[in-house]
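Troubleshooting log. The previous run stalled partway through. Resubmitting the same five chains, unchanged.
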Amino acid sequence: MILGRVIGTVVSTRKDERLTGFKLLVVETLQPGKKTGVEEFVAVDTVGAGVGETVLVVMGSPASRIMTGADVLVPVDAAIVGIVDTVELAGSR
Amino acid sequence: MILGRVIGTVVSTRKDERLTGFKLLVVETLQPGKKTGVEEFVAVDTVGAGVGETVLVVMGSPASRIMTGADVLVPVDAAIVGIVDTVELAGSR
Amino acid sequence: MILGRVIGTVVSTRKDERLTGFKLLVVETLQPGKKTGVEEFVAVDTVGAGVGETVLVVMGSPASRIMTGADVLVPVDAAIVGIVDTVELAGSR
Amino acid sequence: MILGRVIGTVVSTRKDERLTGFKLLVVETLQPGKKTGVEEFVAVDTVGAGVGETVLVVMGSPASRIMTGADVLVPVDAAIVGIVDTVELAGSR
Amino acid sequence: MILGRVIGTVVSTRKDERLTGFKLLVVETLQPGKKTGVEEFVAVDTVGAGVGETVLVVMGSPASRIMTGADVLVPVDAAIVGIVDTVELAGSR
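Second attempt completed without errors. Output:
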């Protein structure tokens, strides 16, 4: 999974109908031990995340199936699955 | 998913027959908070997108299944699933 | 999908038997609006592509299933699915 | 698979319930023959790995299915599947 | 697929039991037309490859299923599926 920060929102009215009702958030990747914000992508929110929050994002086909299980297919390849309380890195860093 | 801009079209007559009828568009990745246009790739259009429009693109196997559901397999790994109205980034950026 | 140019061929006699009979081509990624040839990888050919041709390549698990459908599994993660006639980029580029 | 070093832990109380009970570890990629620590990501632990240990991580949908088999879907795209005893590189390096 | 060179071996006694019996090899990516050795990763061997050999590696979920077919799931995302005899690049390179 990827650590990220929610930095914005996307509005898209003309879209695949199976995306209707999902919040689309712009996420910037976080690398705690390194420079922040390497990549930006769009994820659907499943846990009520808001702009500015640090989040846990699952990527690829695991994201498309978690939304609905294997049978109903939603065109999603990134889903926010957790809001991060703390990230603790080993002392020596 | 990836934010992108449609920058061109691809014509391919000798292709896998299951791609017949799909519009093939060249998309440039957009990173609103950063430099524009990092990568280019080809996506099939499913929402009537045109050159110059900002779009939402799903990548990987979620793209191949959304076209037809799990049973019929189309050789696609990127599909445009939304035309973006607005991208709002947090004020502090 | 990725736009690429076929730049060579691979010969491998000691290989997974399910790859027998497939032409293995070295492909260089093309980014029409940018520097050519960023990455190189190997793809199986499904449309009769030759060295020097511009091709459309599907990547990841969509490639492995297009070869045979979902039941028979071939160890493939990149397949050439089209020979490109033209790539037209928006005038302003 | 990726060689990595566990460099920290993530705590997330508001998360997808199917992640409950899994240890979330921050992993830094290791490239033995090159610069250490190129990327950071989060993986679930399945073998009792701890901070500072060198680990073997499987990525993508293979990670989501190994947790539970194909039927129960867990939103995971990276799983630690081994604790590395030794990495031996060819002498000439 | 990726062209690579086997540069080492990994020993991991505390690992997912379904990996037992598989040889774990460190592979360095090869880009014949460009700088050698960009990335390093670990792949299971399925064709008897040894250190120093040039190999063909399938990545992602196609790798996890080729080991055993769709029903038995092995935590693998990279598998060596061929030992390369020759790579011929077009003359003009």
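Takeaways: The beta strands of chain C are 2-11, 14-15, 24-29, 40-45, 54-59, 78-83, 86-89. Chain C touches chain E at residues 6-16, 18-19, 24, 26, 28, 37, 39-43, 51-52, 60-61, 63-64, 70, 73-78 (CB under 8 Å).
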